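We were asked to recover a plausible sequence for a given structure. The inputs and outputs are reproduced exactly as logged, with field labels preserved.

PROBLEM: sequence recovery
POSITIONS: 156
GIVEN STRUCTURE:
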């Protein structure tokens, strides 16, 4: 049941993404079938194995060469630090609890949640302590994470 729910959410997210990106264009009628055991998991460079991904369409690390969708795993307790993205980032949380700190407010997204960060929004995000997180993400071009230095605390 849990896997069926996860696949349903991923399919919904993919449909929403491709619908907006392809509005008015003919939809290809080619079956895409990726059972979990056929996903090719790779570590995200520079994360020491704390974050990994499995592409479903395109390539999450394609250097801006077209649409991608991918499953992304975060080990429990992994924090991405303060950063932003150059394009909107829709995300479906399939397992664990992912969080985002925006303007000092932490919002937690347990399994079954959806959020879409707008381009340029400075935030901190990660996988809460407990279970590892599994996300499904998609964008018109490759994923990017642009580190942002925190603003200095005002002195009195």
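RECOVERED SEQUENCE:
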């Amino acid at each position: 049941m849990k896997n069926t729910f996860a696949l349903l959410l991923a399919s919904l997210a993919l449909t929403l993404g491709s619908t907006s990106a392809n509005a008015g264009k003919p939809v290809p009628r080619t079956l895409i079938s990726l059972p979990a055991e056929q996903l090719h998991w790779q570590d995200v460079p520079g994360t020491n194995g704390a974050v990994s991904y499995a592409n479903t369409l395109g390539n999450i690390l394609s250097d801006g060469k077209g649409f991608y969708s991918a499953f992304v795993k975060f080990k429990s307790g992994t924090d991405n630090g303060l950063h932003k993205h150059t394009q909107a980032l829709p995300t479906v949380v399939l397992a664990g609890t992912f969080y985002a700190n925006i303007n000092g407010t932490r919002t937690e997204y347990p399994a079954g949640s959806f959020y879409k960060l707008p381009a340029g929004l400075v935030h901190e995000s990660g996988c809460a302590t407990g279970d590892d997180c599994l996300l499904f993400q998609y964008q018109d071009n490759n994923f990017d994470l642009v580190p942002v230095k925190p603003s200095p605390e005002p002195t009195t």
